[in-house]
Amino acid sequence: MATVRTNDIRTYYEEDGTGPPVVFVHGAILDHSQWYPQTAALSDEYRTVAYDVRGHGRTGGSARRRYSVDLLASDLDALVRALDLEKPVVCGLSTGGCIAQVYAAAYPEELSGLVLADTFGTELLDWREWLQRSVLLQAAIPPVRLLGYPRVEKAMVWLQEQVQGEAVSGDYEAIERLRDEGPEMETDEFVKVIRALVAFSEAEIDYSAIAAPTLVLYGEHEPGFVRRHAPRLGARIPNATVREVPDAGHASNLDNPAFFTAALRGFLAEWASRGETSDGEETRSEETNTD
What we know:
The chain is an alpha/beta fold. The protein has eleven helices and nine strands.
């Protein structure tokens, strides 16, 4: 089991392949295994790294009372530096996309490409989005403490399907399988992650500072607010392309992995090789440990 020191925690990660590095950042209440379809397919040409975000999976929690997306982006920066990943392409989905946005704006010279999938920006575009991202997320915390997040999430998915149609949740059974196979998230960690997501609307991101070429992907059947954010992200980030993933909901990399992976491979073929560096450069690594 490979871990690396990132700030005040040890972060679990898996890597495969050689070549230009690609770092994958998963969505909330999942872990690195969300990216298995992509890491398996792309490791023939790239060095793929998928890790468990603080509070999730084998990384687990920490003693901090509060999390923020800024902190999670700082963890990502520490991971990149510790593994000596020179100019990686960073690919984040949903909450992972929020983390990737903050990272790309804060460290614009440290990555060669950015992929934002099924995610949203800091703005709350209307009252419905405010209700969904602020009120309903906060309201989920007491029942999660009482019943556990799997039951509460199933209820929220059911409600969303009644309002927007079953396609919005995509292959939800795939999500459930991934969660059943990995470590269960602690309730206190769930609360800290959810509160960090709620506070994301208050984050200050200079989108004009994102220098890396960017691919914005969103599922055809995404929740409405995510579909509205995709073109806005494309407009605010200087060198961005926006593409819809057909027949996909909010986990488009799992709902339509063939299309998603092909789109990602095309983007990588164009940009990842530009981030390669010559052998013999000074290493920026920190403490690593392979158990």
